[in-house]
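seq as requested:
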Amino acid sequence: MKLSVSSAIAATLMGMFSTANADVLLQSFAGDSGWEVKTDNVIPGGSSVGNLQGAGDRSYFDGFVNFQPFIGQPGFVKIVGTKAFPNIAGCAAIEVTMNSLVGYNGYFIALGDTPPTPDMPIPFEWRAAIPIPGPGQNGYTIPLDEFSNYWDFSTGKIIVPCYADPSVCPTPAVLSNIQFMEIWAQGVEGQFVTDLFSIK
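struct tokens:
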């Protein structure tokens, strides 16, 4: 029996991502997380601004994404954590617990095995949208098969997701050797205000 193209992709992905037996805490944002704010000022004309401040059981991540004339789109603000993160090669999804206080619809989460540098502030990475329908605190679950390394630099949006093409998926080698993670506000002009709690 021959598999259809979609069935073959599904079978490949099932082999790549399996459900973990327990949550793996990747990052707590209680107090000082050690993450840093980066903005589109690394690109000529960038003027977006952002702030990250730890407070009790959370960190406040807020700012304003401005229009970026060099790319002809709204720019970005991101926070970056650079360290050796736990192995999630056996996991099927990532959960971001956060509270969006305004209706901003341009959040992304990204990860990779080669951290950003001054010469390469936007590194090669796999990313996915954080599906926030509106203000409110929730645990937003993002399946790993929604991540992709094929995304639009100017808007941040995914062009081809992992579930449609396994060649753009984060590999087990990457997921077992994550050296940086990022949360982005990108591609949507305006104010964003969030409380960040954790990534699992």
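Helices lie at 5-16, 172-175.
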